[in-house]
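Subject: two folds for Thursday's group meeting

Dear M.,

Sorry for the delay on this. The cluster queue was jammed most of the week, so I only got both jobs back this morning. I'm pasting them in the order they finished. Each block is the input sequence followed by the predicted structure tokens. Could you check whether the formatting survives your parser before we put anything on slides? The first protein is the one we discussed after the seminar.
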Amino acid sequence: MALTVSISQKELKRKADLAYDNKTYKVFLALNDASYTAETTAANWLTKELAVTAGYAAVTGTITTASGAYDNTDARYEFPAITATFTASGVGFTYNTVVIRIGSETYVVGVLVESPSITLLAGQSKTYSITLGEDD
């Protein structure tokens, strides 16, 4: 006998509200020596963040679940994509990890690893589109 379980769209939204509504986010770049993973604390990841003096700035903002919606194709509640554009100034910079943190949570939401490392020279930019969602 098979058992099928369905989670309502309203429950996914409720969970998304608890997790993300009116919380700030920070998307930042890091140069990781491969010792840190998605399980590493946010405090440790922040020690790997690039220095502002290298012409780098993190991307920050606030999430509002009122702007989210259920996505029938992916069967999850999604928020509009966070567009994180990093532009080098000064001498530019090199990084190999994009880190996503919500509020002051102890752990990061996730990491994106670039292999090989990315080097942006002064005036160059790279954009990432990040979608947060609540899935069953």
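Second protein, same layout:
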Amino acid sequence: MKHIIAAAIATLAFGCTEVASPTAQPQITAYEASGLPRAAFVGAVNDPNSADLIFEPAQTTASQVSAAPDLVCRNMGGTVQSAENVPHPTPQFYPTARILEIRCVT
């Protein structure tokens, strides 16, 4: 019982200390910026100059996929250096998934 009370107090004490700045703007992830539907989302990895968007092509249109690199790079403050739509490297786990590999120049 002591442990439960101590955990509850610690959660309240540390969980309530985070304060968001009223002027802070939420960051838009590369996937959100891409315009690809949420239903197509499998995963995403991005850094300041690139993004790898993992998606299910059956849930997208060709125009959404072709527009995504420009939208992502504009969100990053740059332009498209390269974009490749490649199969996922582990088809045993994601047999139909694709990876949109986007590289931007800022």
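Two things I noticed about the second structure. DSSP finds three helices and four strands in the chain. The first helix runs from residue 2 to 15.

Cheers,
T.
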